[in-house]
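Translate sequence into structure tokens.
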Amino acid sequence: MVVQGLCTNGDPNRAFQLYLSMRTRGISIDAGTFDSLVKCFSKRGDLHKAAHIVDEMVTDGCIPTEGTWSAVFHGFWDRRKVREAVELLQVKLMSEFAEPEI
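Result follows.
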């Protein structure tokens, strides 16, 4: 909740530092915290950080929501980074339709 509040109140760097501190201490991060960070950094144009957080989200076993993917996609699109937006969409579609390994 604190991370979300910091993102909402315009202090993303402090929110990110708190997030890193939580990870270092082994505190599990919930999907809402990941989502808030991704949306915050996507809006600010720090798309590499947003994409990195999505990667960590997936690594931690949290499934990005449509809102998470949408925030990153629109961040790239709004900055006219069409290739990156399309690549992200391809990754999203592949994860949705990939057959599970047996």
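Note: Residues 76 and 82 are 7 Å apart (CA to CA).
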